[in-house]
Amino acid sequence: MTSPLQILTLSLTVALSAYFGPIILSLLAPHIQSLLPSSGDGYQCPPHSYTTTIISLDPLLIYIHNFVSSIESSSLVTLGTPLLEPSPVTGYGSDAKGSQARTSWSAPLPSDNEFVSCILARAESFMGNLLLAGRDEIGQAQLVRYTEGQKFDLHHDWFSRPRLLDDDAETGRRRLYNRVATIFLTLEAKNVTEGTGETWFPFAKRVWADGTKKGAGGEEADEKEKYWREHEDGGLAFKAIPGNALFWVNLFPGNGSGDGRTLHAGLPVKGNGVKTAMNIWPRVFFGPDA
Ligand SMILES: *[C@@H]1O[C@H](CO)[C@@H](O)[C@H](O)[C@H]1NC(C)=O
Ligand SMILES: *[C@@H]1O[C@H](CO)[C@@H](O)[C@H](O)[C@H]1NC(C)=O
C-alpha cells in the first residue's frame, strides 16, 4: 500500500524537479558545452597524411606536403584572424612593434584550441628525437599574415643568446631556451601571384649542389619545381602553397649555437595578395634547471 506520506513525497519530488530541472540544466550548460566539440562539426584530430622531401642535408631543410588539411587550414585562419596585430620582431636590436624589417601581422594561437593542439601534436611527433621529453617544449603556435607590400626582411629564427621564459623569470627557475627548429606552414594564399610572397633562403642549396640545374630526375625535377625555384640572387625560394610546410633546423647539433645558413626572408606579397601562415618554434632548454 502506498501511504499518503509517500504520495506527498513523490508529488513534491516531481514538482521540485519540474521547477528546478531547468535551473540545474542551466547551471550545467557551460560544462556540457565544454564537453562538446567547439567547432560544432565534431572535428577529431586525424592521423597525419603528409609526405616529405629532403631539400638540404646541412643545414637540414625538409619540404612537407599536406601537413594540414584544408579544414584545418581554414579553421586556424578563422581562429587567428581576429587576434592579429602588427608583428613584433624578437631577437633584434629593438622589440618595437612596427619595425621596418617586418611589416606583417601576427597573433599567438591559443594552445587549448582543438585545431591548434592537433597541429602542435603533429609537429611534435614530426620532431622526433629533436626534442627531449620532459625537458623541451613544442612552444606556442603563431599565425602570421602578409598583405600588399608586406614582407619580412632577411633574418634567422634563433636567438643570438638563449632566453629566459617570462614564467621562469618570475619563479627564478634557471633555464634558458632557444628555437631549435622551425616549421613554417602556409595556410592560405589568396591572389598571391607567381614570383611573389615566397620564402627565400639565400644560402639553401639542393642536397647535391653540383652546379647542374636539374638533378638526375628529369621530369621529376620539373615536378618539384612547382614548389620551389632557384632564386636569381642565389639559394632557393619556396612558393606559398596552402597546406604545405617547411621544416628546418636552426641550431648546430654539436654546440647549440645558431646556424647562419638558415637566414631567410618572407618576400613581399603584391597587388591584392593575402598570405596567411603559421610558425611553430620548438624550444630546447639549457641550464641547471632545464
Ligand atoms: C582577390 O582578387 C579579386 C579580384 O581582384 C578580389 O575580388 C578578391 O576580393 C581578392 N581576394 C582577397 C582575399 O583579397
Ligand atoms: C658550432 O659548431 C659549428 C659546426 O661545427 C661551427 O661551425 C661553429 O663555429 C660552432 N660555434 C661555436 C660558437 O663554437
From TrEMBL:
Q: Which cofactor does it need?
A: L-ascorbate
GO CC annotations? endoplasmic reticulum
Q: Where is the Fe2OG dioxygenase domain?
A: 137-284
The record's section on InterPro entries has: Oxoglu/Fe-dep_dioxygenase_dom (IPR005123), P4HA-like (IPR045054), Pro_4_hyd_alph (IPR006620), Pro_4_hyd_alph_FE2OG_OXY (IPR044862)
List the keywords (alphabetical): Dioxygenase, Iron, Metal-binding, Oxidoreductase
What molecular functions are annotated in GO for this chain? iron ion binding; L-ascorbic acid binding; procollagen-proline 4-dioxygenase activity
Q: Which PANTHER family match?
A: PROLYL 4-HYDROXYLASE ALPHA SUBUNIT, PROLYL 4-HYDROXYLASE ALPHA SUBUNIT DOMAIN-CONTAINING PROTEIN
What name does UniProt use for this protein?
Fe2OG dioxygenase domain-containing protein
